[in-house]
Description:
Blueprint: E1 4-9, E2 27-32, H1 39-43, H2 70-75
Antiparallel strand pairs: 1-2
Amino acid sequence: MEYVRQTIGSAALSGIIELPPALRNKQVEVIILPAEDIAQEQSKPPKRQLGFLKEKVPTLLDSFFDPLPEEDLQAWGL
């Protein structure tokens, strides 16, 4: 497993992580280890969009929301 190990001043870390007061204004050792391989996630193909719907977006007429006629309601048993 590859890793990075370096000694730096704690001020260089102040914008990245919050250090405990005991480690401020001191030389600190930083060890960077891989947590997970994100290259596998990036290699997944993006989700596909339905291309045939791009230009043919269906629209509902205002009459779609009108109440059904009585004969249709009876046919549905309502």
